[in-house]
């Protein structure tokens, strides 16, 4: 029988729980990275969070103009897997830092070098 409980808090593991409502995820989203008071954990569905995130503007010190929501979700997912398969728990700050680093690297790779 498969265990469908969140390995972090024991709640039923759904996409909404993993990406929005798990206590670890709530800590990740409480990091203020957007100009507005947008907090994905306050959304009822992943779709609502995704749509609201598309309208959110990153804070200037972050230095990333594009969307951060997908990058952070990816690192929430990899942190979840890291806990399951390696029994290690990245901190919310590590999750955010890794997501920001990946977004910056991707943005840099998209720019065309000048001849």
Quick summary:
With 115 residues, the protein is mostly helical. It has one domain (30-110). Helix content is 53%, strand content 0%.
Your description of this structure?
It is built from 5 helices and no strands. Helix 1 (15-21) crosses helix 2 (23-29), helix 2 crosses helix 5 and helix 4 (69-86) crosses helix 5. The protein is mainly alpha-helical and 115 residues long. The longest helix is centred in the last third of the chain and has 19 residues, at 92-110. It has one domain. 53% of the residues lie in helices and 0% in strands. This is Reverse transcriptase zinc-binding domain-containing protein. It comes from Brassica oleracea.
The coarse silhouette is: globular
The proportion of residues in beta strands is under 5%
* Helix-strand string: HHHHH
Percent helix: 40-55%
Low-pLDDT stretches: none
Number of domains: 1
Alpha carbon gyration radius: 15 Å
Biggest sheet record: none
Structure summary, number of beta strands:
0
How many individual helices?
5
The overall pLDDT average reads 89
> End-to-end distance, in Å?
58 Å
Structural class by SSE content: mainly alpha
Show the helix and strand layout.
Elements lengths: L14 H7 L1 H7 L16 H10 L13 H18 L5 H19 L5
Note the main attributes of this structure:
53% helix; 115 residues; globular
């Amino acid at each position: 029988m498969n265990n469908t409980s969140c390995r972090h808090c024991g709640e039923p593991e759904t996409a909404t729980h993993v990406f929005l409502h798990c206590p670890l995820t709530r800590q990740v989203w409480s990091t203020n990275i957007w100009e507005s008071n947008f907090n994905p954990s306050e959304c009822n569905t992943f779709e609502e969070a995704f749509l609201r995130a598309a309208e959110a503007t990153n804070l200037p010190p972050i230095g990333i103009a594009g969307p951060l929501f997908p990058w952070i979700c990816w690192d929430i997912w990899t942190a979840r897997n890291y806990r399951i398969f390696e029994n290690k728990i990245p901190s919310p700050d590590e999750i955010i830092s890794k997501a920001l680093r990946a977004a910056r690297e991707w943005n840099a790779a998209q720019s065309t070098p000048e001849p």
